[in-house]
Amino acid sequence: MGSSGPASIAADGKPYAMRFPVITIRDMVRGLVALLDGLGIEELHAVVGGSMGGMQALSLAANWPERAARVLVIASTARHSAQNIAFHEVGRQAIMADPAWADGDYYATGARPDNGLSVARMAAHITYLSEEGLTEKFGRRLQDRDAKSFGFDADFQVESYLRYQGSGFTQRFDANSYLYITRAMDYFDLAEEFSGEEGGGKLGDAFVGTSARFCIVSFDTDWLYPTAESRHVVHALNASGAKVSFVELSAPNGHDSFLLAHEQLDRVVKGFVE
Amino acid sequence: MSLVAQLRPDLAAIAKQVKPGSRVLDIGCGDGGLMAAIEAEKGCDARGLELDPAQVGLCVARGLSVVQGDANSDLADYPDKAFDYAILSQTLQTATRPDLMLDELLRVGAKAFVSFPNFAHWRTRTALMLGGRMPVTRALPVTWYETQNIHHVTIEDFRDLAKAKGATIEGSWYFANERAIGPVGANWRAEFAVFELSR
After folding, report:
1. Of A241, A250, A271, which has the smallest distance from its Cβ to B60's Cβ?
2. Which of A22, A119, A128, A207 is 20 to 30 A distant from B38 in Cα terms?
3. What's phi and psi for A189, nearest 5 deg?
4. How far from each other are the two terminal CA atoms of chain A, in whole angstroms?
């Protein structure tokens, strides 16, 4: 995952595994800024990010304010909440509780902590959906059967769906990367980065003097990064005098709504970016 | 024809009074017509607050900075005197607490413009007196049970509120038949009024 990660080969010819340094959202953005430097791009017309990408967009705007003229943040937050961290911790513990994880040194063992990673993804996937969306899509319907088995098979469609999502994820994601990336999001607190020596930073301080235009978008059924988190960002941008727009869009699919077709989102993005 | 001249008469009157280059908050900005006009023609730095997400989308598409929110609660998010002007057009009479909203206007803006339909216009008075029912007129076209106007107000009521709030009336403008009219007998003759306040 990404340019390099725990699966990348270190100087000793072995994968870094858990020797890979813990990185932050700002580190990720620092890498992107280095790429822009390499490409000779001084200012981006617009930076657009959803979810963790939105955190990166905010981090870029706060730390490298001259690099983007427009900043569009969709279904995101300026800090991970206790609930966000809690769900991530469940996922990490699932991976680390898998015997195949082997303290992260599984690359040469021929076994991978797919069971743990799969459970981690199942838990995370629930946070991307909404109760309304789950009810509409699955309800209490049974999977490929006419009656409940009164056992522990995937009787319900929602169970089958989650198992499928979990196992599919293991095909394309390294478990250690999952640990590092979730950790980077948990450590994200933009206000804290800009706190003075006595601490107690205000998020508005992160954006003082910025000339970028901002647009913040949330979805009404997103309980992972709810509208209140977006409003917190908008409040801070207003307080710092930045040009900011905000809209809460209505969509039934929870956090995932930002990945799905949404006519009003298209209009807002198009209007803001053009 | 200039953008300002194309505005609704009460908004055009406000746009003409706004000083060039000033910072403006338009509360209940709708599709952003006033904001666009004063940004383009008076070099203002305008921000908007609007409840309807579809209208916010239109504003963003026009390149305006508009936040979706409820004026009854979200003005609290703005710092003191963040703006040279806070504008509230045709919204005061829909507020849960118009008096508290006026306080917030005068807190976030050095000056405030408020426009509202005048319930004491002669047409409204005669409709109520002769018809005995809540008036449905050109200026107030919606029935009592569907209207968003939950706090009907007259020009004299508004003057009393401004006085009670310790606000100074810097100017006032009156409209009937889509045109400006003089101040004489305005509480009878005006369908709409605009006040400029400071505190």
Report:
1. A271
2. A207
3. -155, 95
4. 31
- pLDDT score recorded for residue A274: 87
Position of tokens 């306080």? B103
| Token pair in block for residue A176 | 């250690």
How far apart (Å, rounded) are the C-alpha atoms in residues B128 and B134? 6
Chain B residues whose CB is inside 8 A of the A45 CB are: none
Confidence of residue A208 (pLDDT cuts 50, 70, 90): confident
Cα separation, A269 vs B114, whole angstroms: 32
pLDDT band for A198, please (50, 70, 90 cuts). Answer: low
- The average pLDDT across A217-229 equals 97
**Residue ranges, chain B, pLDDT below 50:** none
Q: How high is the pLDDT of residue B138? A: 87
Q: Which two tokens stand for residue B126?
A: 């005669």
- ipTM value for the complex: 0.85
Q: Does B67 touch chain A if contact means CB atoms closer than 8 Å?
A: yes
Q: Give the other-Cβ count within 10 Å of B42's Cβ.
A: 18
Nearest to A106 by CA among A219, A199, A18: A18
Residue A266 is encoded by which pair of tokens?
């298209």
Using DSSP, state whether A68 is helix, strand or coil.
strand
Beta strand pairing status for B192-198 and B23-27?
unpaired
Say whether B67 and A244 touch across the interface (CB within 8 A): yes
